[in-house]
Design brief:
about 725 residues; alpha/beta; Isoleucyl-tRNA Synthetase, Domain 1; globular; 5-stranded antiparallel sheet; OB fold (Dihydrolipoamide Acetyltransferase, E2P); Rossmann fold; binds ligand ME8; 3 domains
């Protein structure tokens, strides 16, 4: 094992409702990263957990009629139980209601208070309970992030002097010392910072479900305060390592984190609040409330930041279901358990099993592989991606059942049939004689061998850059290449011949195919831990976990695979899935009562708008009332995708982002705008028009544009700072 360490975290998930595949997505990415770093030999620490305090949880518990702690125990248990079923390899699961966390958060608060970075002030503002954040809008206006109704809160609060960290944060992000990826998110954070930072309210006194503000700060306030849930939650990344406790060994070994993985909606908390809190811990800074913000040379911040700030914050996009962000409050979620329960029974029993069926844990791990592969292969990391049961089955059948699984079974069955299950000895580097087909197959075999190591060198950086989608595409290309080679060489024909050269080619073909399978299997291991363990054993190579732990998967060498290796027992790896499984999963989801996904009291704006849209049609009247106008929902959107539609000269297919939703709109503006003209534009969309189909594609909304007598439509636009999804009134 090397001396390098690798610390990866997921967000800690709220316990206001049970997990869905959006949570599984981040956890799967972190697990794949952790598994890969371990196989590269790095000392790896992988943290996940649950975020259990705050008003949202308090209200959800009240709605369920139980105490917040009982509620949190139940839902936290369902996250932990799911990760167990899926074979997630986290090293720790932190709960913010644990005493180790509470004590350490109080220690953090007390330290910042003592340094003068936390002060008591009174404050009135609009609060979004769903996002657990004060937002900068007028009373009665919706939250710019999620569109929900905000509440006016008037409280005496403790404030964190966030404004003092604007410059240091800009410097650290601009210099790349604090890396934020992808680039779009980095730009978003930079533009937020450039707009200036206000001090952050970091306590609440209107409810009690949180960590109490510790002494001596507590007794300076008229009321009892609890620590703001985001400060409480963000601190998990260090409290789990023992920060502020009597044993800081893990903290010393693993902090700062190599990467905090997050969904794109929480970057502000992770890229601004969290690093600012950590910068404020620097003992060289002392900030008394009456004084100007501390001036510290950039290099002094930078030296502290190297030891205290996470190296990178990486945001992924959203899983969309039925065109909008999958979320508990919208109720459009897919539970991971549905996929485990539906795909699990497909798991073939291991050959050696005495009972006919695979055990439940094996079924779960098998199905978990299916979901892992789908999410990492289907969604270019960083972008939003649609989830559907049909797409899951199609991808499974194409890449795993017909691709990888089929290749393994073809090649290994032939080795069993023609060589008694012993890896044959190849004869490469001969000229292949006069026969062009033979020459070509020989050349293919040599190319696979010659590319063996270079391919690994090419693929590894893709994983390092979170380009799982491209990485898996490359592995699937390798699989097709081996498959084509096998088909071109036609071993089944060679096997019928008694000609010496044919026997030699047969052995070479099957050896090279087994080598290719070995390589694909090692490369797929972090993504498909269960299936690759089976294939590795079938190749006669023993335990893939042992190979990974001993650093033998880091870089495979051609010569390591010895002819004469005896294959293990063979079974199907990925049986084909019937299309009917999609219907089954849909039914499984709809049989779950919505009550099992409690949401908080505020109504999403979209639901209110839909209710308004149900009112009766107005009678013909040249002037309309304000209520009529209010029925038209116009929102700010950004064009994220623009493309031509084959054989439709006038239409463009657009995907527009509306805050927490993305939708497809077909627009007849292709005569005047190229897709490149439109990308990134901030426009206005009518969002509550009934969807309609054109050229077999659904269009959900309309762009607002001005035109005269059928001339060029000029798109109505809004300034860059208008929040996406905000409504025009
Ligand atoms: O925000 N698509 O918790 P949370 C992709 N407790 N990822 C999704 C997703 C979707 N549709 N839905 C959820 C919180 N996620 C805070 C975090 S951290 C100190 C505190 C994933 O339960 C994604 O990682 O709302 C997102 O950031 C996270 O779950 C939000 O989980």
């Amino acid at each position: 094992m090397s001396d390098r360490t690798f610390y990866v975290t997921t967000p800690i998930y709220y316990v206001n409702a049970r997990p869905h595949i959006g949570h599984a997505y981040t956890t799967i990415v972190a697990d794949a990263l952790a598994r890969r770093q371990r196989l590269l030999g790095d000392k790896t620490y992988f943290l996940t957990g649950t975020d259990e305090h705050g008003q949202k949880i308090e209200r959800s518990a009240a709605a369920a009629g139980v105490q917040p702690q009982t509620f949190a125990d139940q839902v936290s248990g369902s996250f932990a139980g799911l990760w167990r079923r899926m074979g997630i390899t986290h090293d720790d699961f932190i709960r913010t209601t644990s005493s180790r966390h509470k004590q350490a958060v109080q220690h953090l608060f007390a330290t910042l208070y003592e340094r003068g970075f936390i002060v008591l002030r009174s404050y009135t503002g609009q609060y979004c309970v769903s996002d657990e954040a004060f937002v900068d809008v007028a009373p009665g206006e919706p939250c710019p992030e999620c569109g929900r109704i905000t509440e006016t809160l008037s409280e005496e609060n403790f404030f964190f002097k966030l404004s003092a960290f604007q410059r240091p944060l800009l410097d650290l992000i601009e210099s790349g010392q604090l890396a934020i990826t992808p680039e779009t998110r980095r730009n978003e954070v930079l533009s937020f910072l450039q707009g200036g930072l206000k001090d952050l309210s970091i306590s609440r006194s209107s409810f009690t479900w949180g960590i109490p503000v510790p002494e001596p700060a507590a007794s300076t306030a008229a009321q009892k305060h609890v620590i703001y849930v985001w400060m409480d939650a963000l601190a998990n990344y260090i409290t789990a390592l023992g920060y502020g406790s009597s044993n800081e060994d893990l903290f010393n070994a693993f902090w700062p984190a190599n990467v905090h993985l997050v969904g794109k909606e929480i970057i502000r908390f992770h890229c601004i609040y969290w690093p600012a809190l950590l910068l404020a811990l620097n003992p060289e800074l002392q900030h008394k409330s009456s004084e100007a913000p501390p001036a510290l040379a950039a290099e002094r911040h930078s030296a502290w930041a190297r030891k205290w700030l996470p190296q990178a914050i990486t945001a992924h996009g959203w899983l969309l279901f039925e065109e909008s962000k999958m979320s508990k409050s919208r109720g459009n979620i897919v539970r991971t358990e549905t996929i485990l329960d539906a795909f699990g029974p497909l798991c073939p029993p291991p050959e050696a099993a005495t009972d006919a069926a695979s055990t439940q844990p094996q079924r779960d791990l098998f199905a978990s592989d299916v979901l892992r592969y789908f999410l990492l292969r289907e969604i270019p990391f960083g972008q939003d991606g649609s989830f559907s049961f049909d797409a899951l089955i199609t991808r499974y059948n194409a890449d795993l059942a017909n691709g990888y699984g089929n290749l393994v079974s073809r090649a290994l069955n032939m080795i069993t049939q023609y060589f008694g299950g012993s890896i044959p000895s190849p004869s490469l580097d001969h000229d292949g004689g006069q026969d062009p087909a033979r020459r070509e197959c020989g050349a293919m075999a040599e190319a696979i061998r010659d590319d063996f190591q270079a391919m690994q060198t090419r693929l590894h950086p893709l994983f390092d850059r979170f380009a799982f989608h491209d990485y898996l595409l490359e592995v699937m290309r390798l699989i097709s290449r081996i498959d084509n080679f096998l088909s071109a060489s036609a071993p089944w024909k060679l096997a019928k011949s008694s000609d010496e050269e044919d026997r030699r080619d047969l052995a070479t073909t099957l050896f090279v195919s087994a080598q290719g399978i070995r390589l694909a299997t090692a490369l797929l291991h972090p993504v498909l831990p269960f299936a690759t363990a089976r294939v590795w054993a079938q190749l006669g190579l023993g335990s893939i976990e042992d190979a990974a732990a001993q650093g033998r998967l880091k870089m495979l060498h051609w010569a390591e695979f010895k002819p004469g290796t005896q294959l293990g027992a063979l079974t199907t790896i990925f049986p084909r899935a019937d299309k009917g499984l999609a219907q089954k999963m849909t039914e499984m989801e709809s049989s779950i009562a919505p009550a099992s996904t409690p949401s908080i009291g505020t109504e999403p704006a979209a639901a209110l708008a839909a209710a308004a849209a149900k009112q009766e049609e107005p009678t013909a009247n040249p002037s309309i009332s304000i209520d009529d106008f209010a029925r038209v929902e116009m929102r700010v959107a950004r064009i994220a995708v623009a493309e031509r539609i084959p054989k439709a000269d006038k239409l463009l297919r657009l995907e527009v982002e509306l805050g927490d939703e993305r939708r497809q709109i077909l627009s007849g503006i292709a005569e005047w705008y190229t897709p490149e003209d439109l990308l990134g534009r901030r426009i206005i969309v009518i969002t509550n028009l009934a969807p309609r189909k054109m050229r077999g594609l659904e269009s959900h909304g309309m762009l607002l544009a001005a035109s005269q007598d059928g001339g060029k439509p000029y798109l109505a636009t809004v300034p860059e700072e208008a929040p996406l999804g905000s409504r025009l009134k």
